[in-house]
Structure formats: C-alpha cells, structure tokens
C-alpha cells in the first residue's frame, strides 16, 4: 500500500500532502476482512468504474411514480468505487470515509445510491449483481445492503 502511494505521488495522481492523509493501517485492515479476502480472490476486479446510463425519472425519484413525468428519461452518471466477479455474478462495494456513529443511519443515507449503481452495473455488464456492500473506513464495518 505504501509503495502504491509512492507511485501515485510519482505519477502525480495525488500530491505528497494527500498521500500523507491516507491511512495505510485502515486500508490494510480492509484487506483482512472477509470481504477484502473475497475481493483479492475474485475472478475479476474493477475499481473506480465510471458509468453513464439512461433511466426513467420514476426509478430515481419514487415520488414521481404516479406523475406523468415518471417515464421521462434522465441521465445518471457516477463512479462505482469497486466491483468484483465471483462465479459469473457481481459484488458491488462502495467505500465510505465519512465518520458515522450509527452504521444503520449511514446505510439508510446511501442505500438508494448503491441500488442505482447496482442497477446501472447490471444493465451495463448484463450480469447479476448478487450482493451490495458499504465499507465504512471510520469503523472498519461492512454493511450489507
């Protein structure tokens, strides 16, 4: 992890000051979790995957379901932190670095985002997203959604 940080600074992806803010211990701790071990052992891993997809407005804004705008098309773009493949199916992982005392609250806050990302990932890849997770770096918790 330290070597990768040095390479990122050398290639000017991040500044030396940004590299100093990275907790090598927290990253290392993730790779020792059951989810981190699964990711390392995965058939395929993709990190920082940008996407751009068209959806019905009602799928993003449920309050529009009965409105005439529900079938209007909107564009959703984002960057999926990480996904990996196991036996032909995908596992979506979203990292959260913000501090949270209550993992249920943070799960509620990000549940819709992760669902939309999983939906987009399934449509783009044509594969089933079998599991969705948040990893909370502040507490080293894995939250299954």
Descriptive overview:
The chain is of the alpha+beta class. Helices cover 39% and strands 32% of the residues. It has six helices and five strands. The chain has helices at 2-10, 16-20, 24-31, 34-40, 57-60, 103-125; strands spanning 44-56, 73-86, 89-96, 129-136, 141-144. A five-stranded mixed beta sheet has the order 1-2-3-4-5. The model has no long low-confidence stretch (mean pLDDT 89).
What's a concise summary of this model?
With 145 residues, the chain is α+β, with helices and mostly antiparallel strands. It contains 6 helices and 5 strands; from the N terminus they run H-H-H-H-E-H-E-E-H-E-E. The chain has helices at 2-10, 16-20, 24-31, 34-40, 57-60, 103-125; strands at residues 44-56, 73-86, 89-96, 129-136, 141-144.
């Amino acid at each position: 992890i330290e070597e990768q940080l040095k390479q990122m600074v050398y290639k000017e992806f991040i500044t030396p000051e940004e590299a100093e803010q990275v907790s090598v211990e927290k990253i290392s701790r993730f790779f020792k979790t059951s989810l981190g071990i699964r990711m390392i052992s995965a058939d395929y891993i993709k990190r920082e995957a940008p996407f751009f997809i068209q959806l019905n407005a009602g799928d993003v804004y449920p309050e529009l379901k009965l409105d005439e705008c529900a079938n209007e098309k909107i564009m959703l773009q984002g960057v999926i932190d990480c996904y990996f493949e196991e036996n032909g199916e995908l596992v979506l992982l979203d990292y959260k670095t913000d501090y949270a005392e209550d993992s249920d609250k943070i799960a509620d806050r990000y549940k819709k985002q992760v669902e939309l990302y999983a939906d987009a990932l399934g449509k783009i890849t044509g594969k089933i997203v079998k599991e969705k997770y948040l990893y909370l770096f502040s507490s080293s918790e894995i939250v299954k959604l």
